[in-house]
């Protein structure tokens, strides 16, 4: 049983967008692994923008540095 955990920042992801993420991951697991949708678990966690980063910088600082 595949389990996928998606992390998105808390920047206003809509319920419709979350639905599309779940559908896309479920379809991908079916296409790539041949797993039936009913055996797939997709969890979406919303995390604060400052809670994770890229290259040692939190996302807010990383975006600010890139302009």
UniProtKB/TrEMBL annotation:
Keyword annotations: Isomerase
EC number: 5.3.2.-
First-tier enzyme category under EC: isomerase
Top-level lineage group: Bacteria
Domain 4-oxalocrotonate tautomerase-like: 2-61
KW Cytoplasm (keyword) present: no
Family label: Belongs to the 4-oxalocrotonate tautomerase family.
Protein name: Tautomerase
